[in-house]
Design brief:
heterodimer, A: 247 residues, alpha/beta, Rossmann fold, four-stranded antiparallel β-sheet, disordered C terminus, B: 407 residues, alpha+beta, 2 domains, six-stranded mixed barrel, two-stranded antiparallel ribbon, 12 strands
Chain lengths: 247, 407
């Protein structure tokens, strides 16, 4: 299919920890279309973050194939993976992961440096992005001078710096209060709608998962169910083991 | 373009370092300080000496007797076969030789207003040949006049004799006592910078020969060559002729012929030994400094593991990370180098000032060149970079997933 942007074929991720063999992801198949908004839900240790990391090219499968657009990432070396991460993917982390010593503007500029963009263009784009996420008055603030919600918005601006086709978000609201979490999710939905950016996020919060178009339930390293947000019933939520934030 | 930006990131990282990471560059700092101060002073000393010899005229040749392996003007008088006026005649016959000045020197007691002190008494014939001696001693007058023909019990005294040897200053017109004979001081030399010359007293050679009852022996011969003759060649000819006349074999001579360039060479080789020792010590210091930088870089990699993971997640390649950390390490070394250069040059400038104050003449001029400054800074940058290679490799080799998970 031409509009499939991410395709997983029998993907395994096995950790060999000496005597113990941990099968974190066990034969996952997945098809994500361009412009989709996918939530991956599952209990702790179900392998959802491992799966997300592989889609995000931070990790490679032990077995099976992952296709991002037309790239088979299992066959790639580290510098090609870095290129894909830089150009096609934008990352949003639970802990924001902003560079603590530089201000918001410089943080957003950073990914563009790695793509060798001109300074003037970089600054222009970084300012635009920060304005878009509502932080035009906070550009010269360091991460420690920003609230959690503001930091995550800087991180979203940074993730968008190189116009990625896929946004990868690992518990993006996990460290935020519900109001800030809502703001962040609204921002992501808007991106998904307006820019057709494909979003793949991991969460165990049903309220967050509801923003997605498709929800993949993962258990013991396998996709258990694929459902619509409207089908997110009580039994399923209990099965996942998370009605609200874990903390 | 990208390289420039990555360079800036490396520098930016440094500006957020704590004091303790700057302390690790102390080793580099000390090493560079030592090397820069040494080279600057050594080169300055060489410059000053070469300059002095050149101002005197590099056409001066010295001949002195060598006794028992020693060759100093004093020893040459008491050696088995001292130089005599006959040797002087032989030398005068060598082609290219212009004027030959005989000089006798010995230690003597000098009295002034009831005080007595030891001095070096030098006898030289007044007139043009005396100028050769004074020129090669680098002696200039501070006051009074020089010895002239017809002078008898007149003396020109060294700077220490005039100002420090006695409780009272000796001034022009004062009388000093040598061998129970009064001499009138007619001139005072400027400070020369070595104890022997500054404690010397110059009197007419005929008077000195009478006083010590010595008609033949000579401590030293100073001569200059005629224009157009190769000084080294003339020196060789003198050696040959003297050897024939004194019936000595090559290698077993009882005399030494030296030129200004010989002295510069001797001096240079002594300086080289000193330099080798200091450079060796500086190398150890630089090595320690390098290890210090390596250590602080390993710490930085550990502290910033998550940042490294994040940078990789947003598109940094291994090469980018490697470059950033090596730059950071190199610049850390370079900061040490820059401070080291500044301190090193400061030290040599201070030595220059101190020496000039003490001796009254600039024996050492701090030699400050772009090559030295640039070279030292570049070198410290390279030492820093090399020290950073292993930590930077560790940083660039981190797996993104693991680095991001690092607490």
């Amino acid at each position: 299919m031409t509009n499939t942007i991410v395709k997983l074929k029998n993907v395994w991720r096995v950790y060999d920890l000496g005597k113990v063999r941990v099968e974190a992801v066990r034969g996952v198949n997945m098809d994500i279309k361009k412009g989709d908004f996918v939530a991956i839900m599952g209990p702790s240790g179900s392998g959802k973050t491992t799966l997300l990391n592989m889609i995000g090219c931070l990790d490679v499968p032990s077995k099976g194939n992952i296709y991002l657009k037309n790239h088979n990432i299992g066959m790639m070396n580290e510098s090609n993976l870095a290129m894909i991460r830089g150009k096609i993917i934008g990352f949003i982390f639970q802990t924001y992961n902003l560079m603590p010593t530089i201000n918001a503007l410089d943080n957003v500029e950073l990914p563009m440096i790695f793509q060798d963009m001109e300074k003037e263009e970089r600054m222009k784009r970084a300012k635009r992005l920060l304005t878009d996420v509502g932080l035009e008055k906070r550009m010269s603030h360091k991460p420690t001078e920003l609230s959690g919600g503001q930091q995550q918005r800087v991180a979203i601006a940074r993730a968008l710096a190189n116009k990625p086709e896929i946004l990868i978000a690992d518990e993006p609201t996990g460290n935020l209060d519900s109001k800030s979490g809502k703001e962040v999710m609204n921002l992501l939905s808007e991106l998904n709608k307006k820019m057709e950016t494909t979003i793949i996020l991991v969460t165990h919060d049903p309220n967050i998962a509801k923003y997605a178009k498709t929800i993949n339930i993962i258990r013991d390293g396998k996709i258990n169910k694929i459902i619509k947000p409207s089908e997110l019933k009580k039994e399923i939520i209990e099965e996942i083991g998370g009605n609200d934030h874990e903390k | 373009m990208k390289i420039f930006d990555l360079f800036l990131i490396g520098i930016r990282n440094l500006s957020h370092r704590r004091l303790r990471s700057y302390l690790t560059m102390l080793g580099i700092l000390i090493g560079i300080t030592a090397v820069v101060a040494l080279i600057s002073m050594g080169q300055g000393m060489e410059d000053a000496i070469t300059e002095q010899f050149e101002s005197v005229g590099s056409n001066i040749i010295m001949v002195m007797g060598s006794g028992g392996g020693m060759s100093s003007p004093i020893m040459s008088m008491v050696s088995e076969k001292p130089l005599t006026v006959k040797d002087k005649e032989v030398i005068e016959s060598v082609k290219g030789v212009n004027l030959v000045a005989e000089y006798i020197i010995m230690s003597a007691t000098v009295g002034f207003h009831g005080e007595r002190t030891d001095a070096f008494l030098g006898g030289a014939s007044p007139g043009p040949t005396r100028e050769i001696i004074e020129a090669s001693m680098n002696a200039y007058r501070e006051a009074g006049r020089e010895l002239k023909e017809g002078d008898r019990y007149k003396a020109v005294i060294g700077n220490n004799i005039a100002h420090t040897a006695f409780e009272r200053e000796v001034t022009i017109g004062d009388k000093i006592t040598l061998f129970d004979q009064e001499f009138r001081v007619v001139g005072i030399y400027k400070k020369i910078g070595n104890a022997m010359d500054d404690n010397s007293i110059m009197i007419p050679i005929d008077i000195m020969r009478d006083l010590i009852d010595e008609k033949e022996k000579i401590s030293m011969l100073y001569l200059n060559t005629k224009k157009g003759y190769d000084v080294e060649k003339v020196a060789e000819n003198i050696e040959e002729k003297l050897r024939d006349y004194r019936d000595e074999d090559e290698g077993d001579e009882t005399f030494v012929v030296s030129t200004a360039s010989d002295l510069i060479e001797t001096f240079g080789s002594i300086l080289n030994i000193v330099q080798a020792v200091v450079v060796g010590l500086a190398a150890i210091s630089l090595l320690v400094g390098g290890v210090g930088i390596m250590n602080t870089m390993y710490m930085a990699v550990m502290e910033r593991t998550r940042e490294i993971g994040t940078m990789k997640a947003i598109g940094a390649t291994n090469a980018d990370i490697l470059f950033i950390f090596i730059v950071e390490s190199g610049v850390l070394g370079m900061i040490g180098g820059i401070i080291g250069v500044a301190i090193g040059l400061g030290i040599s400038k201070m030595v220059e000032i101190a020496v000039t104050q003490f001796y009254g003449s600039p024996l050492i001029k701090a030699h400050i060149s772009l090559v030295l400054v640039g070279g030292a800074i570049a070198f410290s940058f390279i030492v820093g970079m090399i020290s950073g290679i292993l930590p930077a490799k560790q940083a660039s080799g981190l797996k993104p997933v693991e680095a991001l998970r690092y607490e």
